[in-house]
Amino acid sequence: MLLGACRPAATGSDSTAAASDGKVSAETAVAIAAAKAEVAAVSAVRTRIYVTEPLGASVAGKKLVYAEPAIPIGAIVGDKLEEAAKVIGFGFSRVSIGADPASIAAGMDQIAALAPDAVIVTAFDPASTWKTQALKLKARNIPTILIGGIACDDILSACQPDEVGVSLALVGGAAAVEMGRLQAAKVIVDSNGKANAAYFGDEMLGNSRFLEKGFVDRVKECPGCKARAQQLPSAGIQSGAAASQIVSFLQANPEVNYASLQYGDFATGVPTALKAAGLTGFHFVTQASGPAQYDDIKAGGSQIADVPVPLGYLGYLAVDSAARFVVGRKVTAEQVRQPMTVFTRDFIDVSDGGFWPGVEGYRDQFTLLWNVR
User: Fold this and answer.
1) CA 37 from chain center: how many Å?
2) C-beta neighbour count of 252 within 10 angstroms
3) pLDDT digits over 299-308, tens only?
4) Contact yes or no for 58/89 (Cβ under 8 A)
5) What span, in angstroms and rounded, lies between the C-alpha atoms of 322 and 118?
6) How far is CA 215 from CA 6, 32, 101, 162, 260, in A?
7) Which of 22, 69, 260, 335 is 20 to 30 A away from residue 112, measured at CA?
8) How many Å apart are CA 357 and CA 339, to the nearest integer?
9) SS3 for 112?
């Protein structure tokens, strides 16, 4: 349900590209129109959360532990979770799990030893980095919620007998595919159906293959466009590490004029590196960006769009879901739907502490369901 007024129709880079480029085929024109409609479909302001059932029980005395990864977004998510946990009444603690497989496993062992009532993890998949610990938590009936990683779960993607999953995976595979498709739709429109695009991702960060699929497949639906994927080994872990790899790729492949970067962190230093290398006419989109990237979008720089992640909303949703698991209430696919939009030069809403709220007034709505006013 999308309620409220729509944002203004896209102008700026979209209209400039359409006016400055030549004619396109009838098939490409249809593809451009479809891409415009795809972006417009997520352009309304949402004013109601998807969760409607009151919690109906207290989590006072229950322990919620956050496995905090050593990547820039890890601490931000932790702050959002801590805020929500304090409101609802959870006892909350944060355990650093680093960013390499050995430290992740050690951190998850530490968390399991704490015997929490629920666990929330960001970014790293259980199958590749904390399989043993995931099985241990499951054996102890401790619900686990994954934000931004990929895993089968009990709500959105049922596990096969040989798979290791979690209780709930937010911003999971299907959501990542959809986000990649929205990135691609923006690229198709901005390029006037003439994008030669690349996707840059780090396979260690599990949603990469899903974002890649959504972006590359959607770009290829445009007859006048091309798309490929390029891996950035370990670049996504450290802020700024991707810039030199991206510039080197573009110097070797000058025909590439658009790109999708897996995370906003990948964009750190990219605009400066492009200028230093004398690379013009190249533009990129991201997902889950932050203030620096939004400034570049607003300035009309090399970054033209972002598919934002409503971190505050997801923090409250994850805590709400953890509470429902703990007290024995249902968690449904409808409740955990993810709001989506596309930030462009003409529309950026960072009114929630520098990030997109996703749903206006979500804090008060969750608080009312928790009966903690």
Assistant:
1) 21
2) 8
3) 999 999 999 9
4) yes
5) 6
6) 25, 15, 28, 29, 7
7) 335
8) 9
9) helix
